[in-house]
Amino acid sequence: MDRFSEFKKNIRRQVPLAMHTWFQLGGVAEFFAEPKLEEELAALLKRCRELQMPTRTFGYGSNIIVSDAGVRGMVFRLTANCFTDIRIEGNAIVAGGGAKFGRVITSAVHAGLSGIENLIGIPGTVGGAIAVNTCAGSGTVSQRIQKLRLVNPFGKIMELTSKDISFGADEFDLQEMILLEAVFELDEEDPTELSKRMQKNWIIRKTTFPTGQCSGHIFKNPRGESASELIERAGLKGARSGGAVVNERNPNFIVAEPECTSADVLRLIDLIRNQVLDRTDTELELHVQIW
Ligand SMILES: Cc1cc2nc3c(=O)[nH]c(=O)nc-3n(C[C@H](O)[C@H](O)[C@H](O)COP(=O)(O)OP(=O)(O)OC[C@H]3O[C@@H](n4cnc5c(N)ncnc54)[C@H](O)[C@@H]3O)c2cc1C
């Protein structure tokens, strides 16, 4: 721990990550840091760089499968107040990278600001939503980003505006940077109407998500096709490996039963990929990330 002696208070070793992920599976983080200030996060990143130690950041772990072997290096979680603050500034909402995205949406709706309410009910933080470019139907989080504040692996804090940011087909490659804060540009709308629309979206979403321990969609939709339909066509609804089961309602989700391990989930993912390729000639690409 001497390598991090001055950060000691906010760093722990061998921390189980399962409790921090939606799947509730996986091993430990070699180092786990919850810095209290931006400057501390920046200094820690710089130290990790000097030590050539790999770093990762996670939000609510709703799009991650942590392997049973765990994660080498430093894992960051942005839980301190300075990373979770949310405020309204005119037609914009400003939110910390660790803020719960659902809370950002409800704050915007209550202030009569529209543009992100269709994403209600999708679990995660602002950082996770932007890294994954969370989407629902044709609406993506990237459409409303005005500005991002990030810290790079050298500990340098920088700002990007929407014209500097290029989102790929699905994701925004943060290139090892950590998102500190995002500004979303929104439109004024009647809060009562907006609130009704948000509630409708929320109810629809809750009826389509599986109940039980899971992550988000396992695979991306291949162009013009639905991963869920391809898995169903391959006859894999309800297929299992150990405690991991392909969800009956939406086969692009895997649900973990008691005693499930990450290895069970990863074996099931391989099985789905191979059988979908054999039976439909389509190669499925992962949406969920494996750590
Ligand atoms: C039941 C269920 C339904 C879902 N439905 C949808 C859906 O309809 N649409 C959709 O798009 N997604 C969906 N997801 C997936 C997931 O909720 C989203 O992708 C979410 O935005 C991930 O946020 P998170 O904070 O949990 O990120 P995590 O899973 O913790 O991390 C995801 C990625 O973001 C990076 N990251 C997190 N925080 C930061 C940060 N501050 N700086 C830099 N990088 C960061 C991580 O390193 C990782 O690469 C669903 C998930 C579940 C469990």
Features:
19 strands; Uridine Diphospho-n-acetylenolpyruvylglucosamine Reductase, domain 2; Uridine Diphospho-n-acetylenolpyruvylglucosamine Reductase, domain 1; Uridine Diphospho-n-acetylenolpyruvylglucosamine Reductase, domain 3; five-stranded antiparallel sheet; binds flavin-adenine dinucleotide; 3 domains; alpha+beta; 27% helix
Written description of the protein model:
By secondary structure, the protein is of the alpha+beta class. It has 3 domains: 8-79, Uridine Diphospho-n-acetylenolpyruvylglucosamine Reductase, domain 2 (2-Layer Sandwich), CATH 3.30.43.10; 82-208, Uridine Diphospho-n-acetylenolpyruvylglucosamine Reductase, domain 3, CATH 3.30.465; 213-290, UDP-N-acetylenolpyruvoylglucosamine reductase, C-terminal domain (Uridine Diphospho-n-acetylenolpyruvylglucosamine Reductase, domain 1, Alpha-Beta Complex). 27% of the residues lie in helices and 25% in strands. The strands form 6 sheets. It has a 5-stranded antiparallel sheet. Strands 1-2-5-3 form a 4-stranded mixed sheet, with no helix packed on it. A 4-stranded antiparallel sheet has the order 15-18-17-16. The chain starts with 10 loop residues before the first strand and ends with a strand. The mean pLDDT is 93. Bound molecules: flavin-adenine dinucleotide.
